[in-house]
Each structure stands twice: as structure tokens, then as C-alpha cells.
Write a structure and sequence with these properties.
The protein is α+β, with helices and mostly antiparallel strands. Helix content is 54%, strand content 19%.
Length: 386
Amino acid sequence: MEQFKLRYSDWEYLAPLLAAIVDTYEQGACFFATDREKVIFKKGTEKFDVPGTEVGTPNQAGGATDQVMRDGKVKTIQFDADVYGVRGNVLAGPLWSDDYNEVLGAWILATPRIHSLVAAFDSFAPLLVEMFPEGGMMYITNLKQIIRRHVSTNFHIDNLQVGDPVDGLPLVREVMDKRKQISRELPAEKYGVPVLAVADPIMDEQGSIIGCFGLLIPKTMAASVREMSENLGKGLTEVSAAMEEMTASASEVAHQQELLNNELDKVSKLASEINQVLVFIKEIADETKMLGLNAAIEAARAGDTGRGFGVVAEEIRRLSDQSKETVVEIRDLIQRIEESIKATLKSSAVTLETTQQQAAATEEVNASTEEMTSLAEQLDHLASEL
């Protein structure tokens, strides 16, 4: 099997070939070789590189180079981000001396170990972010920084870029700690507009957290609808309170109008009673005038002796005539009062009916306002779900 072993002396001839092969990997790759102490050759790609493996870098104790030189075997090794800052797979083997008796170095082919979600991100993210009415932003992080990002045409957050630390994202650390999806509404102060932030942990095959997938969706319309519903609810509450006061006032006016109507009925009855008293007074005046006339006749018969009595009789007749005239005037005034009372009663009845109708209409408006208030609350609830 020695023909399948690579000699250290052959490496300089193989290096150009391996440098060309590395560019054929779709997700990128990195080849490097070492002697027993340090890296002597490296060829990485733009898509993938293994940091800390530049030419001249000392070999890492316990790393792939150390393992294959110690065991003298080709090995397949997986490494996590805490080793080189990225997750990857390594195919590594020893570089032998010409007699194959001693290991003089190692060759390493490193390729990225990419989660399926990360691998598909550039395919689905551009489509999904455009499906949201107000646009959105999707991103993926590893344990330290943003490694993928895509924004829609009508929404973007400039202060979140690939390479930025996860400390700039409010939910990532919490999601990683709690190992579950978290969604939260962020105020406009954070990104300039209200935003719904949703984040999910990304786990590897062993169930370890390796990063986070996040979505930011602007909630400008929902915030506007919520503000409108709050203003509507507030206005309807004020209108409802005013309508309740109007209902109470209308009821009180109706009650007072009814009392006034009753009092006018009493006044009308009193006017009728006064009219009856005037009839009685007229009768007394007529009788008094008759008595005065009789007294004048008797005074005339008595001659000079009854002259003084005749003056008194004349005065009695005069007072009787004045009383009759006063009764006529009072009766005329009472008739006017009765006519005015009748008109007032009619107007009062119309006013009472109108006031009762107003009170009923106000109660209906108040019920409609309460229904609209309920609708405003439902609108606010729907806005919170947008």
C-alpha cells in the first residue's frame, strides 16, 4: 500500500494540482500542508477559508496535523467553530520520508460543514422576504456573528450586515440560551419603524446550538391601524360618556316637562274656579245694585230726611257698577290666561313628546356607540396579529 502514501518530497509537484482542485468545490475548500512544525503551503477560496493556517503558522497541538503525524494514517475529522472560527470537515494524511519510515509533515483538505438551512438560504430568502406586504429581512448567524443576510426591496436595516456581532440582534442570545423560538415586537426606536422580530435556534446533528435563523418584519401598517383603533376607541368612549350625560339630561328634562304639564293643568283648574268666584261676585254686585236702587227709592220718599241715605244708596250703586266692570275685566284676563295656558299645555305636550323621543334616540345612539367601541377593540386585536 506504500504506493498510496504521499512523500514529503513529492509535495512541491502536487501543490499546483491541489491548488487547482480546490476551486472546483461549490461551497469552497482549503488545502494546506505542513512540515513537523509549521504550515508550508496553503490555498483557500473566497467562499471558504480556515483562519489561523497561514504559511508559517505553527501547527496547532491536538489539531488534524498533530493527529495524522502521530498516527501515520489518513483521517476524516470534523471540527466546530470554536477551533478555527468556522465549522468544517477535514480529510488529512501524513507526508512521509522517501523511505516511508518517518512522517515529516501532513496534508489537509478542509471543506465547510454547512447546515442545510444555511446552504439553502440564498435560494429561499430572496423569494420569501418579498412575499411580506411590507417586506422584511432574513439573516443567519453562527455563535458569534451574522453569516447570511437578505433584505427586501422596500425594507432594509443598514446597521445589520454580514460580519456584525450577534450582540446587535436583540433576540439571538436569548434564543440560543433558551433553545426555542422567540418572537417579540420591537418599538420604532430600535430600527426606525415598529418591527416584529422572530428568531429560531439552529442545531447540528448532535443537537448542539450552532447559530440562529432570524426574521425581521416591519409593522408600520399594524402600528397605524392600532393607533387609529386606539384613537377611535378613545373618541367613542368620550362620545359614549357624553351621550350618557345627554340621556340623563333628556330624562331629567322630560321629567321636569311632565311636572310643568301637571302644574299647568292645576293652574287651568284654578282659573276655572276663579271664574266661578267671579260669577258669584257678579251676582253679589247685581244684588247690591238692586239694594242700592231700592234704598234710593226709599230715600226719595223720605224727602229731605232721607237725602243723606240717598247719597249712600247712589254710592252703593256706583260701587256695584264698578264691581261688575272689574269682574268683566278680570274675566277677560282669566280668559286670556286660559287661552295662554291651553297654548302652553299644547306646546308642553309637544315638547314632552319630542323630549321623550330624543331620550329614546339618545339611548339608541349610545347603544350604537358601545357597539362601535367593541368593534374598535376587535380592530385593535386584529392589528396586534398583523
